[in-house]
Every structure is written in C-alpha cells, then in structure tokens.
Amino acid sequence: MSSSPFPDAGAGPAFPSQGASSAGQPAEDGRNLDSILRIPVLVQVVLGSATMPVANLMKLGRGAIVPLDHRVGEPVDVMVNGRVIARGEIVIVEEDNSRFGVSLTEVVGPADGAQNG
Fold it and tell me: Helix, strand or coil for residue 87?
C-alpha cells in the first residue's frame, strides 16, 4: 500500500499524455500542463528557529552563534510557498562536501499540511 497522501498515487499516469492525443494531434491539456509545470515555487528547508529580544538581535555581529530549537539529527521541515509539504534529514551532497541537501523521510498529507498555514 502506498504512503502517498493522494488517493490515486501509483495507479498509473497522473496526467493524460502530454505530447499528443490519441489521433496524433497535440493535446491542449499537454500545453496547459507544461505551462503549470514551469511555474517557479519557493522551496525552503527550515533548520530551526530562535526567539530573542530586539536588543540581543542588535548585538549580533560576524561570527555570532544563534542557537536554534532543533537538535542535530531531528527532522527538518521542507516548505513550498510557506506550507510544509515534507520532512527530511540533512545530508552532505556526495559530489561536494561543502554543500548540503535534504533526504525526504515523510511526505505530509493534505490534512497535516492544512495545520501549517
């Protein structure tokens, strides 16, 4: 059984043929889908947060450390346009040890995501 929050996930193609209709003509739906798939969205990975008085914020300078509420090894939230869509773990990108990535461990369902914004 699939763990996807979407009822038809894994039941076949999610969209009709994108290139041509059954008669070999370009499908109108395919062009509309292409337009939608090119829309940029903001993806953020939330490593944690902190609350502090403005006075302490004003004292921060280069090299200052701000402790966050997440601990090492805790899952991080993956957000798209301000809404949590998944959770994951921070990983080091294999090709370049100076870059980080996220390994998704959980996709948040529509009911869970509604609570986040």
Answer: strand
Q: CA 37, CA 72: separation in Å to the nearest integer?
A: 34
Which residues share a beta bridge with 102? 90
The DSSP letter of residue 55 is: H
pLDDT in tens, 75-91: 999 999 989 999 999 88
Q: How far apart are CA 6 and CA 15, in angstroms?
A: 14
pTM of the prediction? 0.57
CB–CB of 29/19 below 8 Å? no
Distance CA 19, CA 27 (A): 6
